[in-house]
TrEMBL record:
Protein's name in the database: Olfactory receptor
Family: Belongs to the G-protein coupled receptor 1 family.
Originating gene: Or14a16_2
InterPro entries: GPCR_Rhodpsn (IPR000276), GPCR_Rhodpsn_7TM (IPR017452), Olfact_rcpt (IPR000725), Olfactory_GPCR (IPR050516)
Domain G-protein coupled receptors family 1 profile residues, every copy: 1-236
Function (record text): Odorant receptor.
Keyword Transmembrane helix: yes
Keywords, alphabetical: Cell membrane, G-protein coupled receptor, Membrane, Olfaction, Receptor, Sensory transduction, Transducer, Transmembrane, Transmembrane helix
Transmembrane segments annotated in the record for this chain: 37-66, 86-104, 143-165, 186-206, 212-231
Native species: Atlantisia rogersi
């Protein structure tokens, strides 16, 4: 199991565990004690760590797309292009990008003055809900941060798409059906995880304003923050005999 794919899978598992641990335990405790309280420091920490893990996860999924690309399109160079040092550097870059993204968003969000009460209409501290509490009319800095985030996610998305275009072209050139099936099987778990991540994230961020009820907001937040990390281990372990 000490291969690049499983090394990246280990990192992905840590981010999934982190996403769940920053949101679910606190909401469960609040439900058990029939309260909705969270300290200001706790809210800052929850938002920061959630952003670290969710951003790092997308960066890792991008790196894993490159891993699948090299394994299928350049199998003879796999050991050279994805040696242990290269894997460590790429995972460190993913974690570093997630950390910087989280610092930027957290610092910017909580630098705004909050004066419209202290009730967050969500089961965890979410940026859009916190911004609703702000009495500042100038969201220029937040728009800049969102633009930077959009560029990061767009670059990762384009890299994943280009990688899979090359992968599918290479797979279709394989003469045997058994070889094609094996190659597709290698990519299927990663494709499923990426699709789940993108679909839930896009629905959460691009839903129309008319769909803004409290219940729907809770469901959407659950879908993108809890559902993918909970399902990812099942996706990767169902058809994996080694795992």
């Amino acid at each position: 199991l000490h291969t690049p794919m499983y090394f990246f899978l280990l990192n992905l598992s840590v981010t999934d565990l982190g996403c769940i641990s920053t949101t679910v335990p606190k909401s469960m405790a609040n439900s058990l004690w029939d309260t909705r309280a969270i300290s200001y420091t706790g809210c800052v920490a929850q938002l920061f760590f959630f952003l670290v893990f969710i951003s790092t996860e997308f960066c890792l999924l991008t790196v894993m797309a490159y891993d699948r690309y090299v394994a299928i399109c350049h199998p003879l160079h796999y050991g050279t292009l994805l040696g242990s040092r290269a894997c460590v550097y790429m995972s460190a870059a993913a974690w570093g990008s997630g950390f910087l993204h989280a610092v930027l968003h957290t610092a910017n969000t909580f630098s705004l003055p909050l004066c419209h009460g202290n009730a967050v209409a969500q089961f965890f501290c979410e940026i859009p809900q916190i911004l609703k509490l702000s009495c500042s009319d100038t969201y220029l800095s937040e728009y800049v941060v969102i633009a930077v985030s959009a560029c990061l996610y767009f670059v990762c998305f384009v890299f994943i798409v280009v990688s899979y275009v090359q992968i599918f072209r290479a797979v279709l050139r394989i003469p045997s059906q058994q070889g094609q099936h094996k190659a597709f099987s290698m990519c299927l778990p990663h494709l499923a995880v990426v699709s789940l991540f993108l679909i839930t994230g896009a629905f959460a961020n691009l839903k129309p304003p008319s769909m803004s009820s409290l219940f729907l907001g809770l469901v959407v937040a659950f879908l993108y923050s809890v559902f993918p990390p909970a399902v990812n281990p099942l996706i990767y372990s169902m058809r994996n005999q080694e795992l």
